[in-house]
Amino acid sequence: MNFEEIKDKINALYDACLETKTPFHQKIDVCVVPDDLATMVLETTNIDIFNHLITIDNYGIIHTLQQHSNPITEAKRGQVAIERDDFVKWLEVVLQPDEVKHLGDTKRTNLPLLQFEKIIENKKIVVKEVRTIQSTKKQKVSRLVFHTMYKFKKPN
């Protein structure tokens, strides 16, 4: 997939999140984690994401919209509301981060949370959930799945 195709698919998924009233699950596997990024993450967090697919799904988009898209709420937090274009910029933050941190594990799934930070106009933070292969019978693959995103007015 080239960048324009990825952008179009992410925008279509964003639109589906806003327009679809019934529950659904749709994901976009964008690419395999590049080796240089996997090496950086391993060296800084001791978490192996080699051969993981970088994925965005409607659950992450919906969560982000519900939690981080209200301008008034975000201003009170010292943040800026997430907008449609930010979901495309998310990929740049993940593929070329300024910093990566291990935040601990998720409460519900007990999987590692990685935080990718990059300054693009405003500072953005993307939290990812690492999912590992659970079953070869079901052919599940390891994914680095978009979990949430928020951005600050200025770098801290």
Kindly describe this structure.
Helix content is 35%, strand content 31%. The chain has helices at residues 3-19, 35-45, 58-68, 71-76, 86-95; strands at residues 27-32, 53-57, 79-80, 99-105, 112-120, 122-131, 143-152. Strands 1, 2, 3, 4, 5, 6 and 7 form a 7-stranded mixed sheet that branches. The protein starts with a helix and ends with a strand.
Summarize the structure.
The protein has helices at residues 3-19, 35-45, 58-68, 71-76, 86-95; strands at 27-32, 53-57, 79-80, 99-105, 112-120, 122-131, 143-152.
Please tag this protein with its features.
globular, 7-stranded mixed β-sheet, 156 residues, alpha+beta, 5 helices
Helices and strands in order:
Elements: H1 3-19, E1 27-32, H2 35-45, E2 53-57, H3 58-68, H4 71-76, E3 79-80, H5 86-95, E4 99-105, E5 112-120, E6 122-131, E7 143-152
Parallel strand pairs: 2-7
Antiparallel strand pairs: 1-2, 3-7, 4-5, 5-6, 6-7
Percentage of β-strand residues: 25-35%
**Class by SSE composition:** alpha+beta
Q: State the separation between the terminal residues, measured CA to CA.
A: 35 Å
- Rg result: 15 Å
What about the largest sheet? Answer: 7 strands, mixed
Tell me the number of strands. 7
How many discrete domains? 1
Helix content: 25-40%
Q: Please work out how many helical segments DSSP would assign.
A: 5
- Shape estimate: globular
Unreliable spans are none
Round the mean pLDDT to the nearest integer and report it: 90
**Element-level helix/strand string:** HEHEHHEHEEEE
